[in-house]
What does this fold into?
Amino acid sequence: MTLPESMPKLNSMVKYQEPSLDRTFAALADPTRRALLARLEEVDSVSVSDLARPFPVTLPAIMKHLDVLSDAGLITREKTGRTVSCRLNAAPMEEAMGWLRRYERFWREKLDALEAYFNRPRKDREPDRGAPPRKTSDKT
It folds into this structure.
């Protein structure tokens, strides 16, 4: 079948975009941002300076990370006087988890098989084909 020149060709995978989901995964891709979220999980609200204190980077670097988290909707910021406080907003992560759950069926079987393998007694497991043979005893 040949499409007329005037008819656009669409690739549904290329056209499928959820900007909020993309921003969430992009924000979660960085270990510093994940650590910031982990700290925010522990407290209800914390000032930016207190949040930045344990990290070995400058305050402006932390502010850039917080901008990414805020753009993704993962945190909210509130200014009271001269103090800016941050609070965790888990809703975008729930959306990301929902997206991941759609693909769970593809890897659940593999994980179940791996769990079953490690739950077997060690003597019943097949030896690792890439490992050198083990010496049983030097006594002969």
